[in-house]
Amino acid sequence: MKKIILSSIVVLGLSTAAFAQAATDAVSVDTDVSGGISLAEAQTAWPDLTEEAFTAADVDASGELSADEYAALAASAAPAS
Q1: Residue 72: its H or E element
Q2: 23 Cβ contact list (under 8 Å, min separation 6)
Q3: Which domains does the chain have, with CATH numbers?
Q4: For the whole model, what pTM was predicted?
Q5: pLDDT digits (tens, 9 = 90+) for 7-56
Q6: Which residue windows are transmembrane per the record (predicted)?
Q7: Contact call for residues 9 and 57 (beta carbons, < 8 A)
């Protein structure tokens, strides 16, 4: 299931280069220290992040990304080694 979701993110046209330049840890992105990353917080770190990609990464449909969901999003955007 996660592979399907992560593949969706790539299909939505996210730029790997843009993510690689802006990728930071979840704690740094969670500027209001709520424990979740809102779309606005994520877009501050990754300006090219679309609402569709954010929604696809929000596996539990909570409206925010957990640290694990954020890590999965970042990993999906990282260049393959």
Answers
A1: helix 67-77
A2: 45, 46, 74, 77, 78
A3: 2-76 (1.10.238)
A4: 0.69
A5: 555 544 444 444 444 558 999 999 999 999 999 999 998 999 999 999 99
A6: none
A7: yes
